[in-house]
Design brief:
Two copies of one chain form a homodimer. By secondary structure, the first copy, chain A, is an alpha/beta fold. Helix content of chain A is about 40%, strand content about 15%. Chain A has a seven-stranded mixed sheet with strand order 9-8-11-10-12-13-14, with helices on both faces. A six-stranded mixed sheet of chain A has the order 16-17-15-18-19-20, sandwiched between helices. In chain A, strands 2-1-5-6-7 form a five-stranded parallel sheet, with helices on both faces. In chain A, strand 5, helix 3 and strand 6 form a beta-alpha-beta unit. Chain A is elongated and about 80 Å long. The interface between A and B is large, with 87 and 87 residues.
Amino acid sequence: MLDQLFRPEGIAVVGASANPAKAGYVALRNMREKNYPGKVYPVNPKEKEILGYPCYPSLQAVEGHVDMVVLIMPSRLIYSTMDDLDARMEEKGDVKVIVCAAADYAETKTPEGIDRQKRLMDGAKRYGIRVVGPNCIGVIDNRSLVDTTFVDTGVPFEAFGEPTGIAFLSQSGALACSVLMEGAARVVPVLYNKFISIGNMADVDFVDLLEYLEEDETTKVIGLYMEGYHDGKKLAETFRRLTKKKPVVVLKVGRSDLGSAAANSHTGSMAGSDRVYDAMFRQSGVVRVETIDELIDTLQAFDRLPVPRGNNLFLYTQAGGPGIYCTDAIAAWPALHMPVVSEETKEKLRACELPMSNICQPEGYADITASASPKNHVDGLKVVLEDDNVDGVVFITVVPTFLPQKELAEALVAVEKSFPEGKRKPVYYCVMAGAYTKEARAIMEQNGLCTFNTPDKAVLAAKNLCRYGAYLREREA
Amino acid sequence: MLDQLFRPEGIAVVGASANPAKAGYVALRNMREKNYPGKVYPVNPKEKEILGYPCYPSLQAVEGHVDMVVLIMPSRLIYSTMDDLDARMEEKGDVKVIVCAAADYAETKTPEGIDRQKRLMDGAKRYGIRVVGPNCIGVIDNRSLVDTTFVDTGVPFEAFGEPTGIAFLSQSGALACSVLMEGAARVVPVLYNKFISIGNMADVDFVDLLEYLEEDETTKVIGLYMEGYHDGKKLAETFRRLTKKKPVVVLKVGRSDLGSAAANSHTGSMAGSDRVYDAMFRQSGVVRVETIDELIDTLQAFDRLPVPRGNNLFLYTQAGGPGIYCTDAIAAWPALHMPVVSEETKEKLRACELPMSNICQPEGYADITASASPKNHVDGLKVVLEDDNVDGVVFITVVPTFLPQKELAEALVAVEKSFPEGKRKPVYYCVMAGAYTKEARAIMEQNGLCTFNTPDKAVLAAKNLCRYGAYLREREA
């Protein structure tokens, strides 16, 4: 049934607007810009057409097949809209899913808001229509090119690359916006595979979508923003089953008592004891993150990198200061180890690096110095990756002005491609030079490498991948 | 004597190059681009002119007054270069300061490197010349427009605004590069007031520069990247005196044993026990930060915002999810409090916000909802700032597509300007919408407001300002 959420044939948008400053315009513009191949039917009695889509005075009046209805009109119009839907369903019976983006429903905890949500849900249940929302920003599928959101990321669609394998679910529309927009603002904009803001969860909820995404072959990793869920047992079971197949990354708020209080007054649903959630996440192999940056970094790392087979992380740096800084970041996580590599590896490293390089002091650490050429950078990296005691590498370069960054980026891509799929190990590339290295980072990112701008972020992602790897190994043991 | 470091009359650059891929070219290009008004004398026997600057075959051959010599040539040429300097000094005696950017000196711990540094220092001492470096990236003063660094930030100079009040000192050239480049990549690029990479500290060191910056009126806040310093007592005394006048923010590495080991093999100087440093920083009112992002955020906040008079931080948000997320971030710092505001403030807030707003549940928290207009945003902010129980505000907006962002930004600037200088309180503006809100953030930043892209970063900066404020109050008490 949720198939129509991601692959509808025809989408009717109630509350479509010709005014570019309105949400009901931006939703249409997003689908126009993405060149969504299905049918789009704006419903607005006052307009003839919007963005080239002919307008209809009502849902009932749309002649074509409509399996998805998007509601962006003001909530007070829900009664007439549902009457209109009733009329359509009696006649055509085609609608399978409603995405109710508008706010001002039960989340307001007012009798009016509760009644509006009741009218929506009563109507939907009558015909077995599934509902996403209300009070959400909508649904995106960047493979089918459905986009019911009214979010302008500020980045033109052609600047995005191929869709990633990242699916994201959010209980907060605002946080969903932020994840979408912050992702879009990255060196290579993040094109989420599927993106669902579930709002009040009046019907479709976390478990429904997790079950769907479990079977969805294009989804490689799932991210969630969560305030609370009413059925902890079911959620835990779902996570436990799901994490066997693919990683799940959660940003769960309400960690503090104060945060819990704020969450309760927001969604109304009890956030529950954070310690219970935390234990549940750990026991079911869910990776919990603390910040929005860490969330996006970790999702990208899972999407692109193989899960490490162990926690031995080699630190390979072109600069001393950032290397020490990164060593501190690694040492902050007791689970991570800087490995002792073989004497052979050390000798090979000495042979391919400049004489003043620091090879393995301390163990698991190499500083190839600011004078390192692209060849020094990549030859040593290859040597380190071939050592059996190394499960992953944090690679740091500041890219001095005199280092040809494009050549370096292409050489690094070639190193990665030289390892056959099963032999790849995760490398977390830290490229610490702001706007100057946009070109190098873009080349690396477009070729599936994972880049970061500071070592602490690279280490956080590495720690999260290692945690998931350790969970899988424990579970198999 | 250090005056010549920041306001030289004539700069000779040994190792100047006509090859754009060389450091000795970029240093000249930076001064050309900044339109440095003093004299620049490239020294290179093979070139006639570089970037319009006439070249000289030797230091001795430069006719004009030279008070600063920048050394970017390979270190093996230090002997002939110092001979050349000797000749000049015997004849003209004008050089007061050397910035030796080149690496491969005593930090290599090789007899050759140590001898090269000895030749440099012997020559300098003979004439009372002060030396910055070697093994550094140089010196910048964005008021006098001196820039001896060979760093290309990737951002054209005209994109920077006015110089800030931020001075930054770094023991690591690479980390200095990163702070420079990451700063340049921000919404409004950070133009550091003074920026000094001190490298091996063969002569000019932390204390020299801190003493200079203590008296420098254009310096409002000082940042340091530090691995270790040989005279802890002197450093502590300097910090204690300095923090009475202006805030000092330190990123000190070697927090972990592993990091200390890496630091020792890098600069050679014992990093010392981190716990001793940590206590010293606390006792002398130095704000210690953990990441490069936090460092730059905190420096910018100190530069722009008044030091708060207390730790009562009101959380004013336009979105529920980000508000809860931010509450967790505040609750993570026991020193921060979300204050109980007066009944009058609550009533005024209810009057100027939309009916579904959450006013003070929990205390010190307001969620004005996604439907809030620019007027709702600013009217409520003003009410909160006028409450005596509020020392600072974290302000969160996701800037939905249907909110006119330019109007909002300008209205926020007007609120800030409506408070007379002595009555201003720090507001940490979190604008969570990636590239989409570049315009709004640019307007706010250009008018001296402090913006962040995620709530956790805003709270970290707030916590750091509160810590410094508390230190000053304790000290006065």
